[in-house]
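Data card: per-record layout.
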Amino acid sequence: MAFSINNKVTCVTPARPSPSLIARLGRMLAVKRQRTQLRDLDDRMLDDIGVSRAEAQAEARLPAWDAPDFWRH
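The structure for this 73-residue chain is written out next.
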């Protein structure tokens, strides 16, 4: 949506509604499941994706709510 104020065009982006509690819990469970799967990969698979065993274990130990913003969308 755009409108004019004093001959200047201003764009207004509607606010994105925050996700419901159920949606947030679902994403946290998905993050936890993905981290567990990463931890369980064998060394050959980890090497294929460029992740060391120590990095995979460190990622798996993180709490489910501690995920980068780009994972949450």
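Known properties of this structure: The chain has three helices and two strands. The helical segments are 21-40, 43-49, 53-61.

See the next section for split statistics.
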